[in-house]
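Repro case for the chain-ordering regression, as requested:
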Amino acid sequence: MSGVIPILRMGDVLLTTVHVELRDAIADAFQNDVLSAIEKSRATGLIIDISGLDMVDSYVARILAETGRMARLMGTDAVLCGMRPEVSATLVRMGFPMGTVQTALDLDEGLALLRSKNGGTRHE
Amino acid sequence: MSITTRERREMPVECEDDVILVRRAVRAIAEQTGFDTFASAALTTAASELTRNIWVHAKKGVAIIERVENGERTGVRVTFRDEGPGIADVPRVLAGGYSTARSMGLGLSGSKRLVDDFALQSTVGTGTTVEIVKWKSY
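-- result from build under test --
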C-alpha cells in the first residue's frame, strides 16, 4: 500500500476521500491501493468521497470512473459521493459520460444506497 | 469591440505539476474577477484540460492568463501555446471522442463547451495555440 490517499474501513464498507490533486503517479497508486484494500477487507461496498474536490477535469473523472469499474469487477459496489454542484454541471456540459458510475448526494446517502443493495453482507 | 488587457501572467508548462499551478492561478483570477462557482469551475476545468494537452502532447509550452475587458464586460482570457507536433485533423479533434492515452478525447471539445470564446490554431510540425475567454455574467 502506498498510502497516498487514506482508505478507512466502516463495517463492510471501505471509505476513501479524494482531496489531493491527482497526478499520474498518484492516480495509479490510488487505484492499486483501493483494489488491494477490497481484497484484504472483503468489503461489499466502496465509497469514494469527492466533496473536497472543487474541480474534476476529464482526467480525474476518468480515474474515478475507472476505479468504480475496477471495484465492480471484483464484485464490490462502488458509489461516488458528494459531487459539488459546479463539478456536476461542468462534467455534463463538457460531455463526460459519467453515467456508468453510481453516485449519491453525500456519505449518508451513499451508505444507505450500498446497504439497500446487498444488505451489507458478502454472500459466501 | 476591442479587448483590453488589465492584468497578465505568463506561466511555463514543462512538467505535470505545472498543470496544477496553472489551474490554481486561473481559479484565483476567476475568483478575483467575481465569477460565480459555476463559471469559475468551468474556466478552471477548461484550463486544466488545455494545460494537460500541452504537457501530454508537446511536453513544453506556456499558458498566458489575462484579466480582460471589452468595454462593457470583464472576463478572463487564457492562451495556451506550444511548439509540439500540432493537430492534423482539427475538426475531428473538436468533434470529441478522439482519444489518446488516458483521456476521453474530451480535452478540446469539452473545453470549447465550457467557455464563451474559443479559438484554435494548429500547424503540424509547428505547434498549437488555443485561446479561451470566459466572460463574467451579470
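Ordering looks correct now. The radius of gyration of chain B is 14 Å.
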